[in-house]
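Final report, Chapter 2: Outcomes

The project's central promise was a pipeline that accepts a single protein chain and returns its three-dimensional structure in a standardized token representation, suitable for archiving and comparison. That pipeline is now operational. To close this chapter, we reproduce one record exactly as it appears in the project archive, with the input sequence first and the structure output second.
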Amino acid sequence: MTIVERNLFPRTVPSYIFDFKQKMDSHRLCVKEPLVNIKSLIAMTRPGNSLMAAIGIAIGVLFSSAPNPVLLICLIVAGMAALSFGNVINDIFDIETDRMAHPDRALVTGEISVVQAIWFSIILAVVSVIAGTVVSPIHGVATLIPIILLGLYAWKLKGTPLIGNILVSLLVAYTLIFGALSGQPLLVILPAVLAFVTNLIREIVKDLADETGDRAAGITTTASLDKNLVNRLISVLILISILTAPLPLLFPQFRLIYPVVIVMVVFPLQIRGFVLHRNGNRTGHASNLKLQLLAGLLAIAAEGVRYILG
């Protein structure tokens, strides 16, 4: 192509197109980012934990007197919103601790402001109570219980050795009973006990993993107790979880799928967890316990489906 041709080529494109492009580029620079980072808000609710709560509630609903889609959806929304409230309010109170232990969290990085987080937690609490009340006034009151306790936990009880761990674990077990309130809650008592023990171990292990950040923020947790005592307690709880895992087999509703999952999945995870505990791998142990809890809940849920169909 000659010099003349190169000079002529741009003239074939109308100049107003270039002017338009420049204006659009300038406009893009002026557009502000959204006032609220939705992705960060969702991350604050800990979707993985909310999923575990949903599974627990669904299990309870499966053993209710008359399970139906409306009941299931309302109770799952109520439970997930309550737990999400607890996670958000916990992050608000834990900003200083998280600067060391979890520097990537939204409130620490500034992606979400404290005011935004407070409003978000209020919305979650209101949604939770409304969803529970739609089912019945009793469920509405039952929804208030975890909201109040989670608020107390974030405010005061988290800094109380063992008490905070026990409270959180009781609330995990409570999801199963909450789902079965309108039916046969006694059927889920033993699975709820197993969920309580497994989550109690996890909460204590998480305290040990977060010890540095908690100490820097002046928060007293179970990790502040004598380490030999805490390690012995974890070992005893692991033994209890292994010995009590077969107990649901006392009910005929749990004698088909549950024993297979216990032998093939839960027992190996429990043994692996004990090894991780002995090796001092706190992070790995906490993750292993989460898988263990999930496997047990899914096994109970499968039996619940079989219970309805049968």
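Archive annotation: The CA atoms of residues 174 and 192 lie 7 Å apart.
This record, like all others produced under the grant, will remain available to the consortium after the project formally closes.
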